[in-house]
């Protein structure tokens, strides 16, 4: 019962802001086009026109949700992790490399190896800024940002020089063996079942953060590090642990993308998933279940905007405007509630 | 009805926030030219009342008369137009600007009605400073001033607005003892110049030192008004708390026997990066059932001593034993497992996490001990139940288990910290500045818990810069100066003069 109330509280804030954003956005659309209703219908509902559209929508949401859930851990531990993109790429490239290199292994063995490999690569990339912050006091924002660039360029080298599929167009790798591809979601042919992992992880993350001693200690370290130290919490270890989880989640997102959606590493597979996921996590008030919902919403808007642009003369960049509005409204709400207190 | 002598009259002022009653009914009459103290415990409604007077809150009922006229104070600008000036506890100055610029912020004198006339501004600031003898440089940047000087700028700012009635909200909370003396002198000057001062405080000594009359408020009601000269500190304390207050400590006439040493420090030395000795060969021991008080002026190594014992910082030389075991290299958690309880000097810094709930703060180190885990997971029902028990046992006011602890008053936060540390039944309780910022009621409670701990056979190491506290609670008194223990005296042999001299670095022969 209290769990249900907590859940309600977690989704109430983003839902309110989203509704208001859409209303204001509608006024804008009315000014741009003669067919505002059609534009808005496409933006919001075209995702549900066919199972195929719906599947693409879920595929878009999967990496966003996983990275955002991971970022929740980092933020709760007081680490401003902007390295989601790099961690995602590390996971994706590792899974691909292992899948291509070990293609001869039986799938029962290969599948867990590539998944664990992807998670480990992401986690390793999270571990670096975590350790540097705890041991040497290096600012994590700088480290994660720099690592993003390093990883993106390194994967570019790998995909172009090492595992490039010379028969295909563009900077893409060879395919991973078909036997380890993720099955599609039952009933939704185009949707990878990776989204299920995001749903499960959202709930598990909530339990870990709010219903375990480890989670309580992590949040204590994140809200007041000196307090956490004084009551005997190994605060540094909690911070590093949170970064391992954050990186691991992003790495898993990369692995599941390769196995379920791309089936190979594509240099351009991410429309800045890492940064968009950061916004998702912040809008969800750093709550893992909230993050799942904000990720779904963002995916809806990103894909819907494409449909809208095709059918009407409303440009796709309306979405950027709407997300700006959304961020504005969410922050405005914080000020109002503060003033009441 | 109205007395022409009165500059400000309040009758039946009430204020509710939602269903929370902050003020029930306040009557107040401030005479022109007097220093009037409003005295009350934390949470009695002092701040709400002040915010009503300066127009930040609107009263839900009652009347305000200023200079005989009934007034509505709609916002702070209206208040300043009436002649009510407020000096907030937290300063509202721009650190990068000069004293003069701060004084005339938003209303610089103008040249040709357009450019600000800096010379005129500085001259007027200087005239104002000289008129009140404040000894400030009008061109000094605020950031270069001490806290006491900044407060004087705040006062001047109100005076520059021609405030007839000056309200000071707990002005001494941020000051050191010598600065407090300065402030009291300044208030006397203001009275000579015919200004009326309304002074908010919960410190009894200041009431006696500064005021002509005192109004005591309790639970949102004004309960009494006295001529300060006619009442004793104990009378005021009784009105504030609503019963007789016993801030009594250890009874000196009881023979006590102490057990073995629980905590022993031998030659503990800590230096900072520059090589200065913050702790210089500190040796002492605390026996079971004994309160050892560490007296000293702030900044003489008390913070470092507490951190070294708690395991939060390392030392360069020396050893620490706990129950005969060398704990010098142990982590904080290991020391706590052995039975060390630690109440840090600054609650907000090391004692609590403000944004987390009361329940999570009190349970933080007690999940196993208080049976809050069910198959490894936190049972939220059991967590709430445990927190509710502690809230009741330690009389934490205005708190529910889920309340963010940062919304509580200092005294109630401190109670939560003490509840958490005592829950694991420590062998030694290390308490640092336990009543700093606390009102009488809460201090009484804290004293009580400290003495009860000693009576239950725990060793207590009490670090405090309040000499009265050290004398009230300790069995032995150690004096720390510049990182060194100057002397350790039996309570019976110690008097304020001797200890005071040692605190200022007088040689050992003084003892």
Automatic annotation (TrEMBL), chain A:
Locations listed in the record: Cell membrane
Transmembrane segments annotated in the record for this chain: 12-33, 53-75, 87-103, 109-129, 141-159, 191-210, 239-261, 273-298, 318-336
UniProt GO molecular function: transmembrane transporter activity
Gene Ontology CC: plasma membrane
Swiss-Prot/TrEMBL keywords: Cell membrane, Membrane, Transmembrane, Transmembrane helix
Coiled coil start-end: none
Major localization listed first in the record, in broad terms: membrane
Membrane topology classification: Multi-pass membrane protein
InterPro entries per record: ABC_transp_permease
Short name of one Pfam family: BPD_transp_2
Record's protein name: ABC transporter permease
Organism field: Devosia epidermidihirudinis
Automatic annotation (TrEMBL), chain B:
Localization terms from the record: Cell membrane
UniProt record similarity statement: Belongs to the ABC transporter superfamily.
GO molecular-function term, one example from the UniProt record: ATP hydrolysis activity
Protein name: ABC transporter domain-containing protein
Keyword Cell membrane: yes
Lineage, top ranks: Bacteria, Pseudomonadati, Pseudomonadota, Alphaproteobacteria, Hyphomicrobiales
Keyword Glycoprotein annotated: no
Membrane topology note: Peripheral membrane protein
Domain of life: Bacteria
InterPro entries to which the protein is assigned, alphabetical: AAA+_ATPase (IPR003593), ABC_carbohydrate_import_ATPase (IPR050107), ABC_transporter-like_ATP-bd (IPR003439), ABC_transporter-like_CS (IPR017871), P-loop_NTPase (IPR027417)
Pfam families per the UniProt record, alphabetical: ABC_tran
A GO CC term assigned to this protein in UniProt: plasma membrane
Listed SUPFAM superfamilies: P-loop containing nucleoside triphosphate hydrolases
Keywords: ATP-binding, Cell membrane, Membrane, Nucleotide-binding, Repeat, Sugar transport, Translocase, Transport
Classification via PROSITE patterns: ABC_TRANSPORTER_1 (PS00211), ABC_TRANSPORTER_2 (PS50893)
Limits of the ABC transporter domain: 8-244, 263-507
